[in-house]
Amino acid sequence: FSLLEALTITPARCAQILNLNAKLNPIGRFMDKLMHGLAGIYGRLLVPTLKVRYLVIAGAIAIFVVTLPMLKQLGAAWEMVPAQDQSRFMIQLRTPVGSSIDNTDTRARLVEDFLEGRPEVNRFYMSIGGFGGGEVDSAATFVTLVPPRQRELSQKQFIDVCRRELNKIPGVQAFPFDPSTNLPGTGGRGVSQVGFYIQGQDWRKLTELSKEFMDRLNASGLAVDVDSDYRLGAPEVRIRPDRQKASDLGISMEAIGRTVDALVGGLRIVKFKDQGRRYDVRVRLLAEQRLRPEDVETLYVRSRTGEMLHLGDVVHVAVEPALLSITRENRSRAINLYCNPSPGHSSTEVVTEAQRIADEVLPGGYSLVLAGASKSSKETIQSLWFAMGLGIVIAYMILAAQFNSFIHPITVLIALPFSLTGAVLALSWSGYTLNMFSMIGIVLLMGIVKKNSILLVDFTNQRREEGLSVTDAIVSASPTRLRPILMTTISTIAGSIPAAMSLDLSWLGIDAAGGMELRAPMAVAVIGGLLLSTLLTLFVVPAVYAMFEDVKGLFGLGRKPATGGKQESPAVPTEGKA
Q1: Which of 146, 259, 433, 490 has its CA 20 to 30 Å from the CA of residue 451?
Q2: Nearest alpha carbon to residue 209 among 332, 324, 340, 337
Q3: Whole-prediction pTM value?
């Protein structure tokens, strides 16, 4: 739509509004003088710059190379979404396995007492028993805070306070979670930013490895709320038949199972009716005969020959804790692990540390696999870099067709690395991270910078077609194109400043309180990238243009002057109008 507007409505507006013979107002005269002065200064600086073009290019490359370690550091701290102060979060509570709902309720009331005594809390809602049903040893509370201006602690700071204080309550494990750090559809457990699983074949070995892994991850200081889905439930009686001995005695597995089911669980033998209602009649051992595991061994089972034998002769009875759940991933046994980054660290740092620990702890046949939000985050950053690279390739192809040259598109795109340099410096100095929204800002930034380069290269080509030499064309065209470049840069930076400073614009009737943490990294990336890239573009792009013409001249590929072309002075334009 903007292209359609530029080709149709904008020319009509210009014809209606612009009047070249009209007198300018004081502001217009001031801006004309300012632009004329800047163009003059720029033109005078450009002439010596072109004489040392190779030194200028080398210096620009050095600046880019110096910032590469900072880019690597930002990439190591990549996070999907920065934390936002939405004045709401949730806490998952867990009591010891086998706790009754009354015990869970008692512990939950202690948590409620803590929340009621905090001035930051506006209201909260407690749910006991879990939303899936049957989980009477767990609870969840949804906390709403007062507006940020009415409290001293930020949401992130208050979550850390809850984590520290609630875990001091005896018999309670608390897992606070900020929902703003997870995007819908990223998978994983709802209270964790980082998720992965350890898989292998031996279940006992798997539990030992997962425990050691969790201990070392806790000790690293990079993660909090480290947890897994491996939980032992209430004890259960396990009956393991001795198949060889049972076969020798002529007892089938079916007979053993039928006997235990009939005498312990009960066997329906008949139905009877009473006043129009039908009842099942079941036969099983008396309650006092099935209280202990040893009672199972006193049962009799019939062999194939009809002989009654003690069940204890062919089975082993043991009381062992039951698993609440069994997980399999890719046809292998697995244990899911969850955690959150500790304050001051990102999920990417946690994942990197987890992979390092896995390399040291896990033997052959066992592996650590990213899952949930961690997997989605890794795929997202890879997709963003791929999309950015693909966009540059497509832009090169389109520019090559428009300029009818394979060289000039490189001249245009040479400014893109410097825009990335500016964005990296701005994000590092401001303390923001590289995340999905700052990456969107970088993509937007590259589009603006590329347009500025196109203005310089295209107008320089036009001047050369008029018969000017390379240096004369550059010195003539570049100051003339300074005004539109500065207009684009200054207007974009001015529009990004409120978002970058997280300014409260509610007094203008603009509700900008929510999502400031998302917009700020994007705006900072745009501002930093434009400031540095515009400065470098004005000098580096002309230098690169001249360098490529030098290379073409060595091979006899330089542009021949137009026959009868008018030779103009390379002096800076005397008019400040673009």
Answers
A1: 433
A2: 337
A3: 0.72
